[in-house]
Amino acid sequence: MEKLIITAAVTGSLPTKKKTPYVPIRPVEIVEAGIRCEQAGAAVIHVHARNPLDESPSTEFKLFEEIYRGLRERTQLIVQISTGGRAGMAYEQRSDRLTLRPEMASLTTGSVNFPDSVYANSPELIERLARDMKTHGIKPEMEIFDVSMIRNAVALAEKGLAEPPLHFDFVMGLKGAIPATIENLVHLKNSIPPDATWTVAGIGPAQLVVNTHAILMGGHVRIGLEDNIYLRKGETAPNERFVERMVKMAAEFGREVADPEEARRILHLKRSS
From CA 139, how far away is CA 237, in angstroms rounded? Predict the structure, then answer.
């Protein structure tokens, strides 16, 4: 079984300092969270930017650039920039950050109902983002909120817009998307191409459940405050504590954890310049 890749989704779009004091908001906080997560055992960091003044999601290029440069200068982490967009974000607001040429970027291959909005990703938008990623030498992480999105991701490869082997992230447990059951996780795993790699992200209390099974099933895990702020019921904690828990669990199950360079080999990446 391959070594376990741990992705740290440290910020996201929703957690606030009021909900948990540990969520990093300012670029320097996000970089420092990345450093601590790498020290704890993470190999990948999933990056969102936030407005430092009101903590709202931001598309400002300079914020993404500051975060990216800081992570590249101070860590060996694989930087995976989010191209996700809350309701109404246009293509330009989601694509300019790709000119930073990170090693990876997220690509949601379909639309999904969020609890209070529609996360809209039209076929045209998906293909434009995929084309940009290919142009800049970025490997997409296919963000999968439902089974049909796997077929859409495979179609991108068939059109030459994504290069196999593909990498998937199953986002499970979000209201409006695929429920976080083990049966669904097995079905998702069995629905991707045989040479593909996969990670699972569980929302809220589903995080620990699906991550545990991913370790046993040969997949990889995403943790962090973007998906879940509670280490256990009623107890918030910083991102690195979630990484540490995955490292301990992997050891209990006899699975080694990949460092960033080992993760690059597993994901077929070359460190960007």
Answer: 31
- 191-206 pLDDT, tens digit each: 999 999 999 999 999 9
Structure tokens at 115: 């609890």
Contacts 24+ apart (CB under 8 A), 183-189: 185/210, 185/213, 185/214, 185/217, 186/217, 187/147, 188/144, 188/147, 188/150, 189/217, 189/219
| Segment 146-171, tens digit of pLDDT | 999 999 999 999 999 999 999 999 99
The phi and psi torsions of 22 (rounded to 5 degrees) equal -85, -10
Rounded to whole angstroms, the Cα distance separating 186 from 105 reads 25
The pTM (predicted TM-score) of the whole model is: 0.97
pLDDT at 84: 86
Q: What domains does the chain contain, in order, with CATH numbers?
A: 6-267 (3.20.20.70)
Phi and psi (nearest 5°) for 181?
A: -110, 155
Which DSSP letter does residue 120 get? -
As a three-state string, the secondary structure of 215-239 is: HHHCCEEEECCCCCCEEECCEECCH
CB 129 within 8 A of CB 83: yes
